[in-house]
């Protein structure tokens, strides 16, 4: 059974060896060698080889005759082939001989074709290289002539069009390498020109602003022409200037979009028809346009815009920084304004001639910055100014500055608001100047009526001061005006002040009502503060006599009467009716009334002070004995005092002027002064015996005082000043008179019995005053009793005084209770 399986396995292996590639029989043979029947397999293999050899032999025997026949035919063919080869060789020799000339011609033709192809290729290459060379030459020429914008356009065309067509040549590579360098050179050169331009306009902004302001001033003078924007070209012209060369390339000799002149300020000497050149005529803006277009082509427009705006902001801060001594002269302010105007004229022109280099928001931001710094600088520097003429010139300069920039579209309302603030400072400076003027007028015035000798002199004064006095007009020459030189001078100065205020309000775009209101308020300040202080200064000044004070009263009265003329004057120059609803009234009437009252009070004060000087000379003997016979004479100091009062009050009755004036003004002043003097004398005489230093008083001293009071009553009864009714003036001495009569007549019974009754004879006697005098008299009586204690009458008198004193004290206590 095992042999059968082995035989089948060997048969399978042999079939596998026969049917398998020799490269893959390794595993098959390995399986044979791994088996145990190696010898048996070799035997079978030998049997199979012998079988195959027999089959091969059979097959060869079967095909041998055909192989022999094929060899025989092949030998026959070799002979024919030899013949054919010799024929072909002969034919070839003949053909080679015959085609030698043809081959020579063909070679020549081939060479010509190659040359022709090379020439065509060369022409084609040259057709691409020559434009490159020509364009590069043009580029070099444009760079040499500083026409950088067309050079940049040429560079763009060379890089993107010509060089790619030319091919890979060494000179093309060199050109391609140089293109970034040339582009950088153009960019740097354009930036350098821009810096030069910025530096140039910074230096010449003063001239640009001066020209723009002069043009605005000229425009204001052309009343018949409509107001137009100052110094600005039309939009079409500006657009043409900005974009004239942007869309077309220069052909051979092309230029920038605007002129290719160097940056800086152009000299414009010839002004045709008197026209003032605008900023565009003074400034060459081509560096800006050129640099803008170059950076736009380079794709760096944002970089250029940021750089330009940054540099202009720095320049703005420099321009807005005023000089430390700008406030000293008007020229300093003018130069400052010219620089600012020049700066914004340039920015406005750039805004309207370029597309987006600067925009409206940027310019407005710069203007807001400029306004804040400008107003702060003006407030600071103008505060140092104390010259109204300089402030007025500064105001006019600011108005012209504002009108100029308003013509370019900048809002300037804040400047006019600041001018209204400066009006208060201007008013204060005017008040200081007029304070000096009024004081000079007062110091130079002689406080005497103005003598007038001729009709011309009279008209001269009446033209300076509005005076309506028919009585004075009828008087013959020479005559005297009731007031002094102070009145017409002050009235003229008031009008000059109003004119000075009006000058400031010109061109401030205020309504007539506003101007009228501000002028009236300023005039009120002049009247209530400056003139009032000056009048009080003159009144309170030392060594001012009563006559001068009386003249001050007359002067202020006439100035008070002229206030309505002053109001009419203001209404005429402002064209606002004085009776309008919101019209401010002048306070001149109250000012002059207050000054007149102050002068009157000063008269009373000076008169009382003079009376005190006389009373200081009083030298009473308070221990004097009762005169034996006759009436004692009045004291010398009192006689001198009454003589002084008589001469003083004669001044009031001899004043120049109409009788009406005497009846109204000096008469009242004289009456009040006379009554005040009498009351002061009465009070002072009453206080003499009540002085704490006077410890004892005799009846003789009271009799002497009584005599002096009678002298005063005689003065009052004589009527030193007209206008008193009856014995009105005597009432000033009634208190002292009743007191002295009580003591000299020793009528204590009546006083004590009727005290408090309306019909009391001694109604004006104060019990405390009577008590003080009695106590001083008691001290005198006690001293006399010591030396005359055996005299019964003196002892009785002492007891009587003690009794009266006790009763007076009880009376005073009851009164207080």
From TrEMBL:
Residues 242-255 have a biased composition (Gly residues). Residues 414-776 form the Exocyst complex subunit EXOC6/Sec15 C-terminal domain. Residues 224-262 are annotated as: Disordered. GO terms for cellular component: exocyst; plasma membrane. One of its GO terms (biological process) is vesicle tethering involved in exocytosis. It holds the Pfam family Sec15_C. InterPro entries: EXOC6/Sec15, EXOC6/Sec15_C, EXOC6/Sec15_C_dom1, EXOC6_Sec15_N, EXOC6PINT-1/Sec15/Tip20_C_dom2. Residues 44-213 form the Exocyst complex component EXOC6/Sec15 N-terminal domain. Component of the exocyst complex involved in the docking of exocytic vesicles with fusion sites on the plasma membrane. Belongs to the SEC15 family. This is Exocyst complex component. The lineage of its organism: Eukaryota, Metazoa, Chordata, Craniata, Vertebrata.
């Amino acid at each position: 059974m095992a042999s059968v399986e082995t035989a089948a396995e060997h048969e399978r292996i042999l079939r596998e060896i026969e049917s398998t590639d020799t490269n893959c029989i390794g595993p098959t043979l390995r399986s044979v060698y791994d088996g145990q029947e190696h010898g048996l397999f070799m035997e079978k293999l030998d049997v199979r080889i012998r079988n195959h050899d027999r089959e091969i032999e059979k097959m060869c025997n079967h095909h041998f005759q055909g192989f022999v026949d094929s060899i025989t035919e092949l030998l026959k063919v070799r002979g024919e082939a030899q013949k054919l080869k010799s024929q072909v060789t002969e034919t070839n020799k003949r053909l080679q001989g015959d085609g030698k000339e043809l081959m020579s011609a063909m070679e020549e033709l081939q060479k010509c074709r190659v040359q022709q192809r090379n020439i065509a290729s060369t022409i084609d290459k040259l057709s691409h290289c020559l434009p490159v060379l020509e364009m590069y030459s043009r580029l070099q020429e444009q760079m040499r002539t500083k026409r950088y914008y067309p050079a940049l356009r040429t560079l763009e065309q060379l890089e993107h069009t010509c060089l790619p067509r030319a091919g890979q040549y060494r000179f093309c590579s060199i050109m391609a390498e140089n293109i970034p360098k040339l582009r950088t050179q153009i960019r740097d050169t354009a930036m350098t020109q821009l810096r030069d331009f910025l530096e140039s306009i910074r230096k010449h902004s003063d001239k640009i602003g001066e020209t723009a302001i002069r043009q605005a001033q000229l425009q204001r003078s052309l009343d018949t022409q409509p107001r137009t924007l100052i110094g600005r070209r039309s939009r079409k012209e500006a657009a043409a200037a900005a974009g004239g060369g942007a869309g077309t390339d220069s052909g051979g000799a092309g230029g920038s979009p605007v002129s290719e002149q160097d940056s800086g300020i152009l000299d414009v000497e010839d002004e045709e028809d008197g026209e003032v050149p605008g900023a565009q005529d003074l400034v060459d803006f081509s560096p800006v346009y050129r640099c803008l277009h170059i950076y736009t082509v380079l794709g760096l427009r944002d970089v250029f815009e940021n750089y330009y705006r940054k540099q202009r902001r720095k320049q703005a801060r420099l321009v807005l920084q005023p000089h430390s001594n700008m406030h000293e002269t008007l020229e300093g302010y003018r130069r400052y304004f010219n620089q600012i105007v020049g700066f914004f004229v340039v920015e406005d022109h750039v805004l309207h001639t370029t597309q987006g280099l600067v925009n409206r928001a940027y310019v407005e931001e710069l203007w807001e910055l400029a306004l804040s710094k400008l107003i702060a600088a003006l407030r600071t520097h103008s505060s140092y100014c104390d010259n109204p003429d300089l402030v007025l010139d500064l105001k006019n300069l600011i108005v012209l500055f504002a009108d100029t920039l308003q013509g370019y579209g900048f809002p300037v309302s804040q400047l006019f608001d600041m001018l209204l603030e400066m009006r208060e400072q201007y008013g204060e400076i005017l008040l200081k100047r007029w304070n000096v003027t009024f004081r000079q007028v007062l110091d130079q015035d002689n406080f005497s009526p103005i003598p007038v000798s001729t009709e011309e002199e009279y008209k001269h004064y009446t033209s300076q001061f509005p005076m309506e006095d028919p009585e004075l007009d009828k008087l013959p020459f020479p005559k005297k005006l009731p007031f002094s030189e102070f009145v017409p001078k002050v009235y003229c100065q008031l009008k000059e002040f109003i004119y000075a205020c009006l000058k400031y309000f010109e061109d401030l775009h205020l309504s007539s009502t506003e101007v009228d209101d501000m002028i009236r308020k300023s005039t009120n300040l002049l009247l209530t503060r400056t003139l009032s202080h000056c009048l009080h200064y003159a009144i309170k000044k030392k060594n001012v006599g009563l006559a001068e004070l009386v003249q001050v009263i007359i002067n202020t009265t006439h100035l008070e009467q002229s206030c309505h003329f002053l109001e009419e004057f203001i209404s005429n120059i402002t064209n606002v009716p004085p009776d309008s609803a919101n019209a401010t009234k002048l306070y001149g009437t109250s000012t002059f009334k207050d000054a007149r009252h102050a002068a009157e009070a000063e008269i009373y004060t000076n008169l009382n002070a003079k009376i005190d000087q006389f009373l200081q000379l009083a030298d009473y003997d308070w221990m004097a004995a009762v005169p034996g016979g006759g009436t004692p004479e009045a004291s010398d100091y009192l006689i001198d005092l009454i003589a002084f009062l008589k001469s003083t009050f004669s001044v009031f009755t001899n004043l120049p002027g109409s009788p009406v004036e005497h009846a109204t003004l000096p008469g009242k002043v004289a009456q009040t002064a006379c009554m005040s003097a009498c009351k002061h004398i009465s009070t002072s005489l009453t206080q003499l015996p009540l002085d704490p230093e006077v410890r004892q008083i005799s009846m003789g001293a009271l009799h002497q005082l009584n005599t002096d009071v009678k002298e005063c009553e005689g003065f009052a009864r004589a009527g030193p000043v007209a206008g008193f009714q009856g014995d009105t003036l005597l009432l000033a001495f009634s208190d002292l008179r009743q007191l002295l009569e009580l003591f000299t007549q020793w009528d204590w019974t009546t006083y004590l019995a009727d005290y408090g009754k309306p019909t009391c004879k001694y109604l004006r006697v104060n019990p405390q005053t009577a008590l003080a005098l009695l106590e001083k008299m008691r001290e005198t009586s006690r001293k006399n009793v010591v030396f005359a204690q055996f005299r019964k009458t003196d002892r009785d008198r002492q007891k009587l005084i003690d009794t009266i004193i006790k009763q007076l004290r009880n009376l005073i206590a009851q009164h207080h209770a």
